[in-house]
Design goal:
Layout (H helix, E strand, L loop, with lengths): L2 E8 L1 H5 L3 H10 L3 E8 L3 H7 L9 H8 L4 E9 L1 H9 L12 H5 L8 E3 L3 H11 L2
Length: 134
């Protein structure tokens, strides 16, 4: 049994559409513990640090503009194999490929407005947690 901490963020479209409670409930039902949680606005500097691996790509500016466009809910989840389980729960980045029953399969509208972000490795989770939680 590997207990991990995972960074999860409900993006501006998820907040605007009132999906915070539903998304958090899904994680709680899977027995994840919420270690920390906050409603916040991402600054440009935070966004550039969060999405540093995409810098220089043609969609980078659009991504930064979108993620800073409204409040987000940032949280740290803790539980058994959190990173793999959470990634399966959220589904594919492209909602056309996300399976029904996943968060993106049920709620995402476009590849850009796909409701949620979660770290895909332990190293990224640790780095992303530090961006939002000091």
């Amino acid at each position: 049994m590997v207990i991990q901490r995972e960074f999860v963020m409900i993006k501006p479209d998820g907040v605007k559409r009132g999906l915070i409670g539903e998304i958090i409930a899904r994680f709680e039902r899977r027995n994840f513990r919420i270690v920390d949680l906050k409603l916040t606005r991402i600054t440009r500097d935070m966004a550039e640090e969060l999405y540093a691996e995409h810098k220089g790509k043609k969609f980078f500016e659009e991504l930064i503009s979108y993620i800073t466009s409204g409040p987000v809910v940032a949280m740290i989840l803790e539980g058994e194999n959190a990173i793999d389980v959470v990634r399966k729960m959220i589904g594919s980045t492209d909602p056309k490929e996300a399976l029904p029953g996943t968060i993106r399969g049920d709620y995402a509208l476009t590849i850009n407005e796909n409701v949620i972000h979660a770290s895909d490795t332990q190293e990224k989770a640790e780095r992303e947690i530090k961006i939002f939680f000091k």
